[in-house]
Amino acid sequence: MSSKNTSLKRDLGLLAAITIVVGNMIGSGVFGLPSALAKVATPSIIILAWVVVAIGATIIALSYGNLSRSIPKAGGPVVYTEAALGKFWGYIVSLVWWVGSAVGNAAIVDLIFTQLAQLIPVLDFPVSKLIATLFILWLFTYINICGVKFAGWISIVTTILKSSVFILVILLAVPHLNFDLFVSNSLPLSLQGETDIYKMFSAAIALIFWAFTGLESSTMAGGEIKNPERNIQRSVVWGLAIVGIIYILINISLLALISQDQLAESNSPFADAINMALGTNMGGNIINIAILISVVGALSGWILTTGRSIYAASKDKFFIASFAKIHPRYSTPYVALIASGVITSIFFFLNFYSDISGNTQGLSHFVNITTVAAFINLPTYLVTIISEYVLIKKRKIESSKANNIRLFFAFIFSLVFIYFGIIGSIVPVIYWIISVGLLLVGLLCYPIFRKSHK
Questions:
Q1: In-domain check, residue 226
Q2: How far apart (Å, rounded) are the C-alpha atoms in residues 340 and 378?
Q3: Distance CA 366, CA 111 (A)
């Protein structure tokens, strides 16, 4: 019997698939965005932006659910695009999704910095931050190499933990909610003194969509999910429903509990909310620990899915051949996981060179990285929607009149989100230079990658 494994193991059930979606979406975004949003928009505009993005993301997510029933393979949008538009476009999506997700992992790492510094002040220094965070990044890369089943359990446990944090914050906040804050803070507190409602809404949309990236996470691990024709679609729909409700409720709670100026300056809004509700710092410390564990769990989930995009591309022979290698013992795409870790590390180092970034907006590296990551990923949603339309026209997947109408609105929403991502972006040029540079290098290397399979 050969000891060489060439395929993935289907070790993930429906619960694990749902928690991968929920865990990846509720990663760093919901914990780090409240403060960033308070700097660029008013409470009412922030809530409106959350609702609009939630509706749009739900309409877009249904395309992933529909496609997963017919193409239940690892790689999600990569394999959907290849089936509809060919290998070159499949490669483009795999490259964009991979770089965008790897960049996003750096944002999660940045939030881990913030939470650790709240608990261990000595980590608030560049060298100690670098050592601690790289250790966490590569520890969870190693865990994912050692097996998807264990990584799946980490996702389940940390998702339950972070959901408990949200429920606790909402329940404790209810008796103290002051909706007058929505009115009293009607003037924006943007550091630029922005008063244009349209511009505030644009900036909020550009930031918020980051919190919804990951809705396709279970499709990326489609090759490792049991009963994929049914469970992938269910995990996308249920995962997004859970996340959308949590996002809106938790942001209403924070904005009606903490004044906008305090929220804009807060390094840990959830801890501040608990401290205000309980009148003590103890609750905040407990919440900081819970958030830290939750964000680390999100990092594990994103590491799991990030590597699957280029694994799928390599498996279908339009990315570097070695990225399709499966670990002989653990049956995981270990080369793809390691490569993803390297990309994440590159963006992590940007956090230590703020003087190069030219950031004069008063926003954190977390905001810069999340905005870049979200914008890079946005085109993959548009291409996936186009792929569904093409496959319907080719009669490779079934559709209905209602789904065709939904598909039209999904197309419109994806274009709208890209538009707001462009006009609402306030990211330093250095982040775009490196991001676009990586994508261009990957694009130019396409012929070389194809030849590596011959």
A1: yes
A2: 19
A3: 7
- Residue type (1 letter), 389: Y
Residue 243 falls within a domain, yes or no?
Answer: yes
> 37-73 burial by CB neighbour count: b if 16+ within 10 A, else e?
bbbbbbbebbbbbbebbbebbbbbbbbbbbbbeebbb
Our measurement of the distance from residue 242's CA atom to the centroid of its chain's CA atoms, rounded to an integer in Å, reads: 15
Of 247, 265, 257, 259, residue with least CA distance to 187: 259
Residue 216 domain-assigned (yes or no): yes
Helices (H), 323-364: 334-350, 354-357
Does 4 map to a domain? no
- Amino acid (1-letter code) at residue 8: L
Domain with residue 367: its CATH number is 1.20.1740.10
The total number of structural domains that make up the chain: 1
Helix (H, G, I), strand (E, B) or coil at 132: helix
DSSP for residue 161:
H
Q: Are 58 and 205 in contact (CB under 8 A)?
A: no
The pLDDT of residue 33 is above 90: no
**CA of 185: how far to CAs of 52, 115, 258, in Å?**
21, 27, 11
**Exposure of 28 by Cβ count < 10 A (0-12 exposed, 13-18 middle, 19+ buried)?**
buried
pLDDT tens digits along 68-82: 888 877 778 888 898
- What is the value of pTM for the model shown? 0.78
Closest residue by Cα to residue 39 from 183, 189, 256: 189
Q: List the domain range (segments joined by +) for residue 413.
A: 14-451
